[in-house]
Design goal:
Number of helices: 3
Largest sheet: 8 strands, mixed
Radius of gyration: 56 Å
Strand content: 35-45%
Shape: rod-shaped
């Protein structure tokens, strides 16, 4: 009687499809019905045969490899004997190798045997199609086999054809969507960040440093959001990849002038400047008296640009009367034109005393006859004339004036020019004119008695 769970084959050997040798032997010895001697003999013979049959010493490990790399799957079989080992790709339903022979027509597959008990399946330059279950099979009766899994991972790759181009433009205060798609295995994760490290404004007011998702939605874009955005794809398989997308925000030029009134004295240098913002890039230039100012020894133009901002300076060398007036800074691009105006005016230098050359002949006392006329020599004072530029001074309204005349005795002057050059209104001239020459002359008469008088002269003799 054969124990439950133990079956005979047609050849008379026993097999245990639902249990192990130990289970069948236990059932035989503990069975209520003791088997006959010949049944026990056949059972022991089958047990001996089973102990010599092939079996797997260890399972096939799951192997993970990056695409393009080599992978190896081991199958360890003990007591192989005359049996043969075959490798099968279950997903493809393809026999790859039988014993030492490669059956597949794919040259990337090969098999090696270490003359012990390990059969190694080699997958060279693994591709995504190689991903799946692999079976190691021994042609026993019945067949024995075990399965392992080959995982082929793929680093991320950004799909340019499905993503936003590398450069995109939008008008200010409009909306824009930027898309970044990538493939790979496992499925990549997409994040966005700005190249300059600034925050990204999403949902109008919310600011984030990193945004997750394939589509970046920006609403009412401002010029401050202009710049380079990085789309980064990662899936745990190195290397990560990124795409650089430049966002251009277009708007018409704007100009502001720090100082609209700039003063400077004659014969000095003066610098005026203006700031502008525009995109696309604007053409910026200076205009004076309806003529464009070009760089020269007289004019030095300095231009600095940073993104959509620009700063332009104009230095005017050695100011002359013809350099004073309005200068216009003009900015122009394809969306519009604007300008700013700067007025350059003259600042008078502080006045310095005019050099006066005085020739004085000192009067000498002399004894003269009683009937002779007494002559007094007056000192002669020379004043600068109008054509003498070194001594010419200017009134507050810029009109040059001149001083000339004669004075008696010692002369004095002030910084402001006289307002009245006539002989009348002498008292008024004394009171209001800033440049009145006050002369005191003492006349000594040689006579029997000493007389004296004082004469006050308040007007210049022309």
């Amino acid at each position: 009687m054969v124990p439950v769970g133990c079956n005979y084959t047609t050849s008379g050997t026993m097999q245990w499809p639902r249990g192990s040798v130990e289970q069948c032997l236990t059932l035989s010895l503990t069975s209520a019905h003791v088997p006959k001697m010949h049944d026990l003999a056949r059972f022991l013979q089958s047990l001996y045969v089973f102990m010599d049959e092939p079996r797997f010493a260890q399972p096939i490990p799951n192997v993970t490899v990056a695409v393009g790399r080599d992978a190896n799957l081991p199958c360890v079989v003990e007591h192989l004997g005359s049996y043969k080992v075959a490798w099968i790709h279950i997903d493809r339903q393809m026999i790859l190798t039988i014993h030492r022979h490669v059956i597949s027509r794919i040259p990337r597959y090969s098999v090696t045997y270490d003359n012990s008990n390990t059969w190694l399946l080699h997958v060279n330059q693994a591709q995504q199609d190689d991903r799946g279950y692999y079976m190691c099979q021994v042609n026993t009766n019945p067949m024995i086999s075990q399965v392992g899994y080959l995982q082929v991972v793929v680093p991320p790759n950004i799909l340019d054809i499905e993503s936003t181009p590398s450069s995109v433009a939008v008008r200010e205060n409009q909306n824009i969507n930027m898309t970044c798609r990538a493939d790979g295995f496992p499925t990549p994760k997409i994040i966005w960040r700005r190249e300059d490290g600034q925050s990204i404004t999403v949902e109008r007011k919310k600011k984030v440093m990193v945004y997750d998702g394939e589509v970046l939605h920006l609403t009412k874009v401002s010029r401050n959001e202009m710049g380079a955005y990085l789309c980064i794809a990662t899936n745990g398989v190195p290397p990560s990849v990124s795409k650089r997308i430049i966002l251009d925000v277009e708007f018409s030029p704007m100009i502001w002038v720090p100082n609209q009134l700039v003063g400077a004295p004659l014969s000095t240098d003066v610098t005026i400047d203006c700031h502008t913002e525009a995109h696309p890039r604007a053409i910026i230039y200076w205009v004076y008296n309806s003529v464009m100012v070009l760089p020269s020894k007289k004019y030095i133009i300095d231009y600095n640009e940073n993104s959509y901002r620009a700063h332009m300076k104009l230095t005017i060398k050695n100011l002359s009367l013809g350099d004073f007036g309005n200068y216009r800074c003009i900015s122009k691009n394809s969306l519009g034109e604007t300008e700013g105006s700067i007025r350059v005016y003259e600042i008078p230098l502080p006045s310095t005393p005019s050099k006066q050359i005085t020739h004085v002949v000192e009067p000498k006392e002399a004894t003269v006859p009683r009937n002779e006329t007494i002559k007094v020599v007056q000192p002669e004072v020379l004043f600068p004339i109008k054509n003498d530029e070194s001594y010419a001074q200017r009134s507050p309204n810029g009109i040059p004036f001149e001083r000339k005349g004669l004075a008696f005795g010692q002369s004095f002057y002030t910084d402001m020019p006289p307002k009245d050059f006539g002989f009348s209104h002498a008292a008024t001239s004394l009171r209001w004119n800033c440049n009145v020459y006050y002369t005191l002359v003492r006349i000594v008469s040689i006579s029997s008695s000493l007389t004296y008088s004082y004469c006050i002269v308040n007007q210049l003799f022309l």
